[in-house]
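Researcher: Hi, I'm a grad student and pretty new to this. My advisor asked me to get structures for two proteins we've been looking at. I'm not sure of the right format, so I'll just paste the first sequence and hope you can take it from there.
Model: That works fine. Here's the first sequence with its structure tokens right after it:
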Amino acid sequence: MSPGDVPTRTDIPESDKWDLTQLFADVSKWQEDFARVQRMYPNIAQWKGRVGESAQTLAEVLEFEKSLDLRMERVYHYASLQLAEDSANNEYLARVGQVQNLLTKIGEAAAFVVPEIQAIDDEQFARFIADPALKDWRIKLQKIRRMKPHVLSAPEERILALGSVALSGYDDTFSQLTDVDMKFGVLTDAAGRERPLTQSSFSSFLVKRNHELRKRAFHQFYAEFQDHQYTLAAALAYSVKADVFRARARHYPSALEAALFPDDVPVVVYDGLIQSVRANLKPLFRYFDLRRRALELRELHHYDTYVPLVPEIETSFTFDEAAEMVLGALDPLGKRYVDVLAEGLRTGRWCDRYETKGKRSGAFSSGSYDAPPYILMNYKKDVFADVYTLAHEAGHSMHSWFSQNSQLFQDYEYPIFLAEVASTFNEELLTHHLLETTTDPKMRAYIINRQIDDLRGTLFRQTMFAEFEKIIHAIEESGDALTLDVFKSEYHRLLETYFAENFTLDPELDLECLRIPHFYHTFYVYKYATGISAAVALSQRVLSGATGSVEVYLNFLCSGGSKFPLETLKEAGVDMTTSAPIESALRLFEQRLTELEELLV
């Protein structure tokens, strides 16, 4: 293999890959469980028309569904992780297709359950909830009951279940196009070596000191997106159409309210985030101007916003070194937290570490009940942000671990709203740890710059993304067409708002709206911004040594999905229905900016 080639999985040592045998010993065992579920699920029909017969009958059908869900979650987890290893592997694609088809059949067969629960009259439902037979299901049942205005008749639910896979095809189209079909070519780096430009390596080029290399990487990368812009715009448009269809089918006033309702998050939280950030853009513009001056540029482009401002510091950390840094940073959370994570990263093979051919880009954490909370990385030792990415994904994984070990299966799955708190909390502790352990002013400036960029990327940038999502869904709901030109023009207006007058907006940047994976998973991105705001507040309490703050935070991790997210955060000391957490994070951004200005003068 030549130095510029992306390695295949056979080129990577087993110790650097996740160990999926902890899910299934081999594919034959997966096939056995898959076949078992195929045989099991039709048996749910025995409860059709009988769900509200008695508390005992209701408990029986719920326990049967649970036994199905436990197996199906594990089956899907294994298949989806294999596909993440290699998106072009036909065998993996076939298995995920099999799982999706089986999920559709199960959804169709079980479509009567929730409508029949909703049909139970209020007095009888109250008696059922009080019955000991349903003591383990009270939280789940109350959440189901709350959805009553948006649950349809059994035949209608069956139709929606049948169409669920077809209605999400845009996501597969986007993933296959961007991860497999699109080819970005190679670039010659500053040392004269040819390196492949990929979805994963793009970030590596953007942190290089060489301005011309960053510029070439940006334009070459987006040239490929420009060649596929109409296909991507069609995929995004159908993603929005599917969101609006589901919302209208279930009688929600809008797609936004449909997305927020399951978490019991009022629209004012979403709108309040946008309003607070929009009202505090001046420090962001001030930072862009500092960046332009520090890099000695006449004008600042988007591809100039990721390179560290401290030129003398070149970072290079192996994955193992990064893991030790993360573990050291998380020491304030106590021995149990650190020991479990250390075992998972060092010897437990939770993490699939490096980029390989066909592997999904980016990073994620993915868990299932009683199984390791796996981490996918595309780690690069010369991208310091990857150390933070590891801390971030470890936060998700430990949230999963604590939740699995504290909650019943039906209550363990925490909402994404809370997930982004646990992940960004870890990043805040990492920054504090790095600042505490360095005496070098240049390294301090580097780390502060990194935290500023993290806040910029998570608070400001994700809020801009959230505003874009709200705009394009409103356009679809008004009956207007979502075309490539509409996407680009709406996105360009937001770029003009969220960037300063001294910032040069390259025309290609309008295409960024087509390459953000989360836009194909609607109204997700705002949770990054609210998450980092809550994380800043919680981490400041832990780092201050406040009595009981660690215990309160670990209880937060243990809570899983046993409460609605705003209630869970309020118990942990953060009220997201007010602007206080957002404004606190914005103040931290301005405080760090002032310190960085002093260090760079």
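Researcher: Oh nice, that was easy. Here's the second one.
Model: And its structure:
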Amino acid sequence: MTLARKRWLWTAVSFGALLALLAAVALVVASALAPAERERLSAALAERAPALAFVALVLAFACAGVVKWLFDEYVVAIRGLAEQTHVLVGANEALRVRTDGAREVAEAAAAINRLADAWRDLKRDAERRAQEAAARLEEERNRLAALMAELADGVLVCNAEGRILLYNEQARALFAGAAPVGLGRSVFGLLDRAQIAHALEKLARLARPGEAPPVTRFVAAVGAGRLLRVRAAPFGAAGGGMAGFVLSLEDVTGEAGREGARRALLDSLAASLRAPVANLRAAAENLRAYPDMAPEDRARFHAIVAEESRVLSDRLNAALRRYAEALKAGIELEDMRVADLLEVARRRIESALAVDVALEEIPDDLWVRADSFALVQALAFVVGRLNQDYAVRRVRLAARAEGGHVALDLDWDGAIVASDALALWETEPMQTGAERTPLTLRDVLERHGGEIWPQRAGPAGMRRGGFRWLLPAGEPAPARAVSASARSASRPEYYDFDLFRPNDASRALAERPLAELAYTVFDTETTGLEPSAGDEIVSIGAVRIVNGRLLRSEVFEALVNPRRPMSREAVKIHGIDAATLAGQPTIEQVLPAFRRFCEDTVLVAHNAAFDMRFLELKEQASGVAFDQPVLDTLLLSAAVHPAQSDHRLEAIAERLGVPVLGRHTALGDALLTAEIFLRLIPLLAERGIVTLGAALAASRETWYARVRY
């Protein structure tokens, strides 16, 4: 119940009680009078009814005045004292409570201030000790930050859910123009989900107790035709299992270009060497076919052999010198256990194609040199074609060493596939289920230097088809025991490692604690205050909050050409004039970029209804909708401090001890709003408002939620 309702209720009760008391006194007096006297008294009261009504009205006003005085001196003063105490404890320890209430309330305020002084001294002493204890950790953080900055490769550290915990500037540069890199963002927005899932599955398969953590590699395509070589390694949680993974990124676009040059070299060599080789072969065959030819003819053929051999050698040496670097280039393959590779392939085939896979026992010391992602795709593609064209429902995978290679056998009961059918499959882009890749089976085989051919897998008279894959053998990695001290050593806590705490993916967003969510705090500057009357946005500023930390390095700031005149009043407020906005992008160009910046976050603004109305009116023109939840610091402040009448941004900042800088710039106001929001979260928690759903419900209950634009 609000204070106003309580005051009117108290006034009504006190006035009713006073009337009841007067009525009781009148009844007692009347009962003591004789009947004739009671009649005269009743007649006198009836004659003076207007005067009595006036007296009752005066009493009602007197009751209201007394109740108002009591409320102002005690109830309202105590409520304000409680709200100031919450701010003092939760947000602004420098605040000292004050009151305009009664002397007793003032004495309580003085006692609270004395306790606050003692609490502040204790807190500062604890903070001093914590700072001393954290100084060594800070030094390690600085060393790590310097090391990360000096690395030539990009680095992404992710938790088990794929949320980015750490990145360096090199990683941000590698994805420039493709997708934004930021703390708390999903790595699946940067790299292909299937490739990462495959890498994680393989890492889990490769992990061996007592050995160093495994490493896997793959090549991923990002925006603008760029290729990245990705090296993935896991790290464990304190209680066991995988807590997350580290991705190191290297731009190999140039290497891919050199690979193309190498292939072009091989093609040109084949063309330029064809004639000399043909002449050599013709000369050799003639010398062999006619051993008794005339000496002058034999000498002429010997001269042809010598000349063509010289031409062949010169062309080959020149090409090798010219393209030595291209010949050395090539995308790196990875050594891995054949058993692990085929286990990953089995899971992929059974899940994507619903084909049963029988896997023979394979020695642990049998290793293959392969791009595991591409090779698993190739195996799944071939099994998919068998299933589609020959109704094969069960296959068997086996492998053995064969010289310097690995012979991998894929066989099945049923039809034998002809060589011409296999040759046709080799030239088709591979597709498994709904997943399609432009790579062909021949591309994968050439990349590995491997071959495939059909063979009869069973004894004579038995219909059993099969394929033999010949792949390069790999070198087993030496097992390195990890000491107990190395396993138990804690990694330095830097950036935002609180994101390791697992989130239950099944929980609704409204049930998530406020402290766990990621936010985009934003503000707009406009041509005026009436969005529905044609006013436009001229500037958008935003900053991200992840896990209770304000990320000042992850900001969005853009000027917008409103394509309409600016009012003098608006220019006076934010200082953005028509000359500044000339040549800037339009709102239809800016909003898609802003939508990408704030995806997967909760929006936060001060007086958010105003800013959101501008965004809503541009949904159709820009083609983007901002449909995520929105929190408003104005409404949250009213929910936390209902007894306070001023909820302007400056007033809230002063109340919470937040310095006001950069007002009336979109980014400056967004930063100020973000700091206020972080101070409001613990104050909300004190009132039992700890989830997003509770915060939204509390906001809707405030009077300010009725404002519309």
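Researcher: Is there anything I should tell my advisor about the second?
Model: You could mention this: The chain is about 50% helix and 20% strand.
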